[in-house]
Amino acid sequence: MNVLEIRNLTKKFGDFIAVDNMNLSISEGEIFGFLGANGAGKSTTINMISSLLRITKGEIQVLGRDIVKENKFAKINIGIVPQDLAIYEEMTAYENVRFFAGLYGIRGSLLKERTEEALEFVGLGDKHKALPKSFSGGMKRRLNIACAIAHHPKLLIMDEPTVGIDPQSRNYILNSVKKLNQMGCSVIYTSHYMEEVEEICTRIAIVDHGKIIAEGTKDQLKSIITDTKETWIGVKNAERLDLDALKGITGVNSVQLEEQMVKIVSRGEINNLNWVIQQLIRDQVEISSVEEQAPNLETVFLTLTGRKLRD
Amino acid sequence: MNVLNITLFEIKKSLRDKRTLLFMLAFPIVLILILGTALTNAFHNVNEIGDMKLLVKNTAQNQQLQSYWNGFAQAIGQEGIELTPAASGIDGKKAVQDNQFTAYAEIDDNGIHFYGSSRETISSNIIQGMLTSFADKYSLAAAAVKNDPEAAQIIIAGSMSTGSFVQESSLDPDRKPGSIDYYAIVESTMIAFYACMSASWLIRGEVKRKTSLRLVAAPIGKLEIFAGKVIASTIINFLCILAVVLFSKYAFNANWGHHLGSVFLLLFTVVLLAVSFGLGIAFLFKDDAVNAVMMIFVQFASMVGGAYFPVDEASGVFGGIALISPLRWANEALMNLIYNDDLYAVFPVIGLNTAIAAVFLAFVAFTMRKREAF
Amino acid sequence: MEFWIIGNKAVLLFYVIFLSYSVVRGVSPWEILAYLSYLCVNISIPILRKQKRFQLLGSVASAILVALFAFRLNTIFILLLSVNLYETVLLLGGRSRFALLLGLVPLFLIPDDEILVYLLATSLSFLLYYGMRVYTEKLEKIGEEKEALRLDLQRLKQSLSMNEEYIRQSKYTIKLEERNRLSQQIHDEVGHAMAGALIQMEASRRLLGANPDKASELLGNAIAISREGLEQIRLTLKDMKPRSEELGIHRLRLFADELSANHSVNSTVTHAGDLDMITPLQWKIIHENAKEAVTNSLKYGGATAIEFEIRVLNRMIQSVVADNGRGVDKIVKGLGIVGMEERAASAGGTVIVDGTKGFRVTTLLPLQKGG
Questions:
Q1: C161 touches chain A (CB under 8 A)
Q2: Which of A9, A38, A151, A258 is the most exposed place for a label (fewest CB within 10 A)?
Q3: Measured at the alpha carbon of residue C75, what is the angle toward residues C70 and C80, in degrees to the nearest 5?
Q4: Which of C17, C26, C35 lies nearest to residue B119, judging by beta carbons?
Q5: C342 touches chain A (CB under 8 A)
Q6: DSSP class of residue B40?
Q7: How sure is the predictor about B239, in pLDDT bands with cuts at 50, 70 and 90?
Q8: pLDDT, tens digit, 9 for 90 and up, residues A63-78
Q9: Is C230 in the same domain as C255?
Q10: pTM, whole model, 2 decimals?
């Protein structure tokens, strides 16, 4: 079953169309990435999924049930990590998580257990009694996540959860997301950091002006631009090179020799660098440099929308 | 259940906010103390009159007058008036002006010259009254001596007995509030109304902190959040008032009358009114305007409500304006309750407060349902 | 920082009030007025945080008030003076030594029995002032350092990304030059081959009568060289040959030229990728959308230049019409945009209209590979 199903979703603010007839489905176990510049409609979509905004047209289903008709069901199964820190600075970490989990109808010893579990999960197990005021940016971000997962949501929506934190905390958070995903939680993830999306998302949608303009795995997205990659290998004694043998390697489309550089164009999804290098070694060619040029998501985004992700 | 959770959490949160709490407790107490002691003279209570000091310069030659005067002096001495014979060379009027004495009297054969303090008008009036009655009786006795000396003796003897120079009934200390009593009442109602300021942050604060996102995303109704917050805010502010009232009662000996239950009920409705008023303003105006509107209204209501100085007989435009101050209704009802034992005075105010609160709350609940998010 | 000054003032004020109550019972209304005006002025100082000039004014006014009260009402008021003096110095950013002296000036003016307590109040206030000054300066310094570091970091980051861009650019340029050179070479070689064939043929004609065998051999050589050369020319020039598929892009160019001629708009057409992949139906959509977009640009944009760009990517065709006009912040969908969207949707594509830097209409159409 699909965790999330969006059909013809539209959101208007007056005359302005923020989300334009969007269709999307996310199946269970996915980490789904939303890529888009500011104002592209990501947050509006997310806010409609989490019932913060009303739907102008279209429908959203969570676990097969309409979120307007069965609002409570949808809410219980969704956890939301807002872009801005949404915690009470004057309450301890434990009280924060406990309060928000309590809103989801969890009571008594289970509440205590879930609160402790969530704090432990984000690595704040030893900070129960500490006030968020004393936390670093990364710790606050982690607490922000803990508040969203204590009620064990089936779908976790994370809106820029790693803004402005140190690399260590970011890695911690990314690993937590993966771990959560392995535990059976589907995730919607938005970020400005292309590398993060590339690293953790199983599927990605590029959103611009309220529309999904491309969608798929990162390889599928890259293949929109091109499905080949170029490997440039700098060589010292090119005359020893057996070009035909190189062409015979799986995935290689063409080989060209340009002065001291060999340019090998091969299919993007195949990793044949090992074989190429083995061949070069067999030919007793001295390798001075290896560079692979494959499109990344940033180029895909830039090419399709004509804009940079971060303006 | 959710409402209870939110209420408890909100109360806990308010208790963490030491600064606001301190303000709500210390501000009225300090005001009661400062205004109550500084403006004592405007209220004259009984203790003050016990301290009456009279400076006397006696130059009378008449033996009879002298002996009568001595008897009189003894009698009023027993009533707590301290007589001091003026040393020669002392300017009596100057001494009174310097507030060393309540009044100054010069006695000679022609009569008594009286000079009272303009600072302690009531005390000097009392002394003046006593001296006038002494003078009357002495004239009467002097006239009687010519016809019947015996009768004159009786007149003087009768008038020398203690207490006959003062009519106690007009000075019942319980019927009128002293300054501490007055300010205890008005500052309590004022601080009860201050609840509107923290209440205006109940929802705005969540929006500002972004926690409103989580609240809206959680499977609870907006009205549950709203109810929880209103209840919590009312309780916490009411507890502050309770503390202020009890503190003023036991530490300052402020008079809160015999119907504490009704007093608290009235104060509770004032808090409720303030909380719903604050919420309503927060929804009616844009973010920045809220604070200004609130501040202006609260200060204005406090002023015309008598929180800084008594406004007994306001008339004309001012009186009309004063009527819209909720603090004025509350203060008047409380005065009536405490000093006239008028239980019925509080019920219309309680009803009015609750009704206005209900209107504001209904307005907020309605707007909130209509709004997206908060 | 303000809290400390307020605290300092409050403590002294309470002391003054307490003293004047305990010594003389019943204070005159003037004194109450004095307390209240002192409170008013000094409360307004922290409130006016944003306007330093008014703060300064408030502080000086308070000092004058206090001095006035001290001489007219009650000497005890003088205790409040030193805080205000220090506050003024602090606001002016003056030196500490000067401040210390300033605090001592009133010493000569007050009665002996107040001097001790005045000294106490002044020295405590001075300590507070001094501590505050030292720590604010420290804080400011740290803030400045942090700001400088941040700017440094930003500059470094910027130059790094500029360098990267430059490297990428130059790599590309080098590649281009390299290719140019190569093609030049091929041309030269073909030219040489042709020249060789020509010479052989000339020789063959001369020898035709004398030595037919030799002539036939030379002619055979010439034919071989020519054939080879022709083949090479064909290979080299293959991409330059106009093809029927290019009619699409020609039409677009024609449209752009007309635009330049009829309106004062500078228009350019660029393309990248294999235009063969675009089907006639897709060309139709591209043309119609381009026309619509141009109408839009001319109507609202105030544009002086319009750029057409067609790129054939691996799985998508991207056609962009961008102008350099005003654009709009928020696009309100009119019939034109809806029409473009419907046309694109009929071929499974989408249209993005962006108005942030002039109008930019992008039509994205999916590309069927091999189909």
A1: no
A2: A38
A3: 65
A4: C26
A5: no
A6: G
A7: very high
A8: 999 999 999 999 999 9
A9: no
A10: 0.63
